[in-house]
Write the structure tokens for this entry.
Amino acid sequence: MQKLISILFITSLISVSNAGYLDDWSNDDLCGWMDSTSIPKYILDEVNKREILCSGGLEVSVLNSSSPNVSKNGTFFASPDPSLVIEVKSEYSY
């Protein structure tokens, strides 16, 4: 009888913890995986279940609608703001 009570007690302790594996993960933790080259299926499923939007590895409320940086000749990069470019003066003349 005491073995039966012990077994029931142990099984009740084991079955109490039914929280999901990713319940403790923040949305930013999950979004960090979205920039990975191979995203595990369970991460994708959790992101879809929570309906979160990710950009740059962080949760965002709205996705940026900028045009893609790809052309028929490959990837291109946007020009920097001219006000941020520092002019370098050289002591040497050519």
Q: What stands out?
A: The longest strand covers residues 53-55. The chain has three helices and four strands. The mean pLDDT is 78.
